[in-house]
Amino acid sequence: MASIAANLVGQGKKSIFRSHRNYLDHVKELKNQVPSKPFFFFENRQQVISLEAKRLRSRMGLIVIMKNEDDKFAHCDCLDFLGVIIGNKCRSVKAQEAMKYVAGYTIAIDLTARNLQEDVKRKQFPRSSVKGFDTFCPVGKFIQAKEILDPHQLSIWLKLNGELKQHTSIIILTLSNYTGSTQNMIHKIPELISYCSGIMTLEEGDLLLTGTPAGVSSISPGDEVEIGVEQETNSSIKIIDQIKFNAIQRSDGLTYDQLKI
């Protein structure tokens, strides 16, 4: 089960479900209302770029849309996520049984064309043109479920050009009541799976992005992006996975001026 699911998500052949507004500090950062129930939207399968797949090594970069006006680049934001990979087909799963359907985890970056998003929000249009660009969801390696002691007790972090932008440390939580740790998801993984599977069937290899903490960061071509996930074991911190790559300029496709509404 684990190897099949890992291959499916690594090749970008399954569905991506993106949980929105699932960390309190990120909700406050964007001045949004705290959702009483999980909120999902679909993302394009071609967004997924596996940084573990050798066949994709030559494409290890983010795509940044070029804006026509004054040769400026579109305002593109990146966020780090813990991804859950579904191991078996399921529908209408109860929360208390949901973790049985988890094959493993991955770390992922979700990108947003933020200035285009402002256009879309004003017109109340779907988000497809904001988040659906190829390579807008780089993912790390497949982490088997048994390697994670508790997915709600993890630290995830994001660095931009070496500067720490997002850090959901359990230690920071203990010392200063920080609200971004994976244990501070508004809706925990079992609830996310139960809610989503109550709407539609989840398939083996589907990727569920569980939300992001505060620390929205804007990127431009040439920027170096690095994310990692850690867990505490026997009073020591173990890095489970980390990925690093550079943003590159998009060489084809529509520009921001051609896309804006």
Automatic annotation (TrEMBL):
Sorted UniProt keywords: Metal-binding
InterPro entries per UniProt: Fumarylacetoacetase-like_C, Fumarylacetoacetase_C_sf
- GO function terms (MF aspect): acetylpyruvate hydrolase activity; metal ion binding
Q: Where is each Fumarylacetoacetase-like C-terminal domain found? A: 16-231
Which GO cellular component terms are attached? mitochondrion
- In terms of domain of life, where is this protein from? Eukaryota
SUPFAM superfamilies in the cross-refs: FAH
Q: Which residues form the signal peptide?
A: none
Please name one Pfam family that this protein belongs to.
FAA_hydrolase
Family, similarity comment = Belongs to the FAH family.
Mind telling me which PANTHER family this protein's record contains?
A: ACYLPYRUVASE, ACYLPYRUVASE FAHD1, MITOCHONDRIAL
In its UniProt entry, what is this protein called? Fumarylacetoacetase-like C-terminal domain-containing protein
* Origin species: Puccinia striiformis
